[in-house]
Each structure stands twice: as C-alpha cells, then as structure tokens.
Amino acid sequence: MAERVGLTPAAAELLRRLVSLHGPVMFHQSGGCCDGSAPMCYPAGEFRTGASDVHLGDLSVEGIDDVPVWMSGPQFEYWKHTHLTIDVVPGRGSGFSLEAPEGVRFLVRSRLFSDAESAELNGPATR
User: Fold this and answer.
1) How do residues 21-34 score in pLDDT, each as one tens digit?
2) Beta strands of the chain (E only): which ranges?
3) How many CA within 13 A on the CB side of residue 38?
4) Dihedral angle over CA of 122, 118, 49, 47, nearest 10
5) pLDDT bucket at 123, cuts 50 / 70 / 90
6) Under a CB-based contact definition with an 8 Å cutoff, are residues 52 and 74 in contact?
7) How many other C-beta atoms lie within 10 A of the C-beta of residue 120?
8) What is the CA radius of gyration of the chain?
9) Chain centroid to CA 75
10) Three-class SS of residue 14?
C-alpha cells in the first residue's frame, strides 16, 4: 500500500528522544516560506488542525506512539503527487518546533509518486 509520508532512521531516533522529553508528538507541514515550509514538530494537541488541513498519515516509530503528520490544504494541492520523507540535519530550525534546542532541524525530502502510487492515493489521472 502506498503511503504519503515516511521518515529516516535519524528522524525516528530524534522523535524517540523528543517523546521522552515532551510526551506524544505530531507534525504539521505548512506552506510558508523559510522555516514555515519545514515540518514542525509539536506536542500532541498543542497545534490545532483545522477543516482545511490534510492528515497525510501516521509515522510508526518503534518504542513510541504513532506520530500523526498533517499538512495545510493549500500546500497539499501542490504536494499531493509526492512522497514526503521527514529527515533531520544539523542546524537550527524554527523556535516553535520541538527539535530547535537540540541543534538539529527536521526537513522534508520528496520524490514524485509512481503512476501506480498516485492512482492508488489520488485516483486515476484525468486529462
């Protein structure tokens, strides 16, 4: 089954550390510029999703509860044909995301879905 979102082993390890400090977490990917376009990690329930937000899926990470990943609706329209992989790199991200004090930041790597994946997730292509 095709999935819209995944994560790297390094991101999974960071999530385990963040959950040990803050409890269950969630991600939200907005369509802003600069840090606003990075996946933001919040304590579960701290960021309120709205009717226009899209639930991309839940990340399964050994040792912690599944981590829901959300995206703003307008951003989803641009990204609905891509698989997103949450990764972590050295550097400081936004002060609002939980990893900021850790000296690292989450980022999204993307790839286009295959035709089969896209059809499964988005329905058949129309021309």
Assistant:
1) 999 999 998 776 65
2) 5-7, 25-29, 39-43, 54-59, 67-71, 82-90, 104-112
3) 22
4) 180
5) confident
6) yes
7) 14
8) 14
9) 12
10) helix
User: Tokens in use for 18?
Assistant: 């963040």
Whole-number Å distance between alpha carbons of 14 and 9:
9
Is residue 59 a contact partner of residue 15, using CB atoms and an 8 Å limit? yes
Give the ranges where the chain is alpha helix by DSSP (H): 9-22, 73-79, 115-122
* 8 Å CB contact between 65 and 52: no
Alpha carbon 58 to its chain's center: 9
Instruction: Record the pTM.
Output: 0.90
Task: List pLDDT tens digits, range 49-96.
Answer: 999 999 999 999 999 999 999 999 999 998 999 999 999 999 876 668
- Which amino acid makes up residue 12? A
CA atoms within 13 A on the CB side of 5: 28
